[in-house]
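Subject: Interface between my chains keeps coming out wrong

I've been trying for a while to get a sensible model of this assembly. When I model each chain on its own everything looks fine, but I need the whole thing in one frame so I can look at the contacts. Pasting all components below, labels as-is. Any help appreciated, I'm running out of ideas.
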Amino acid sequence: MSNLAKHIVWQEKRVTRQDRYRLNNHRSCLIWFTGLSGAGKTTLATALEKELYEYGIRSYVLDGDNLRHGLNSNLGFSPEDRKENIRRIGEVSKLFVDAGLFALTAMISPYREDRQLVRERFAKHEFIEVYVKCPLEVCEKRDPKGLYKKARKGEIQHFTGISAPYEEPLHPEIIVESDKQTLEQSVQQVIQYLRENHYLDDWQQS
Amino acid sequence: MSNLAKHIVWQEKRVTRQDRYRLNNHRSCLIWFTGLSGAGKTTLATALEKELYEYGIRSYVLDGDNLRHGLNSNLGFSPEDRKENIRRIGEVSKLFVDAGLFALTAMISPYREDRQLVRERFAKHEFIEVYVKCPLEVCEKRDPKGLYKKARKGEIQHFTGISAPYEEPLHPEIIVESDKQTLEQSVQQVIQYLRENHYLDDWQQS
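Reply #2:
Try treating it as a single job with all components included. I did that and got this:
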């Protein structure tokens, strides 16, 4: 933190989180989808966004690829840049959760440490990690963006699963197996978790 | 943009902006407050957030100082870092506007070029620039954070108004003179602009 930043005072917000919950009639949280490229993170997050909309719940998909066209357009794929990429999306998610929305992030986010750093920025029940599990060979066969092919040819360096590791979550809140279940089943699995854990309840002012 | 970024495809969102407007019963926009330190940007943005809440409108203050504790914690106050600070907040605002909220940003943002770059990222009616005008001597007398004192002593470099320029907006949508009007008058001035320009209308699906 620079010299000037030390002088900076956190400003009080006047509209509270509770106010926002009351206005929306729902609470907020971050649902963090992690998994290999091609596992179906964005597809699932986007389908969940649609389903939550049907429930009258405000959510927003923060897609790692999309954000590289905007907020993270000045980041590459070095280990440091990947770390910063995840950190920024974690911070933006925090703003969204504070603003009263369900933030849905879709990023490979291959390292446990990076995901843990994001988790620690949230209260216990605000952070839900969803491991979108799919064998590498299936992801590589799908190869929706043709990236595995390029990675195998050596045209892309540090590609997760090929030339860089993917560290599976040890204790994710939800595991979805995208090679064994349909998209609709996966969406309903997440919805079921949210329902059981009262994320979908009408918000009652306490 | 790196080699891999070229391969990245923009993912289709399934919940549209219109869907969000319909769910919230209001549209979204960015209200960008600019002005000297101590002019009252955050105070006004926060009071406006509260007022919009009373109207049932979802808004969120993105305060330049607050964000230096999170998203922009790795930025200092060099010209490059200030530019990046503004760019990132502009991009986050874009996400908020896309998510259906009124984004309210409170940053000195002293350079026309930087503000223009943000403006260009938005559709014409999505971006509202509010110049919170206040003479330097009044801001310096207020000095709520004691920064002017430090800047005069040379303890802070590149301080806007003292050792770095502030470029007034040439064509802001709104000018608020915080030394001549009360906070309530300023809030109502912005509300009046929003009302006249149909930002406060119930959302009608066309």
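Reply #3:
Confirming on my end. Strands of chain A lie at 29-34, 59-63, 102-106, 127-133, 174-177.
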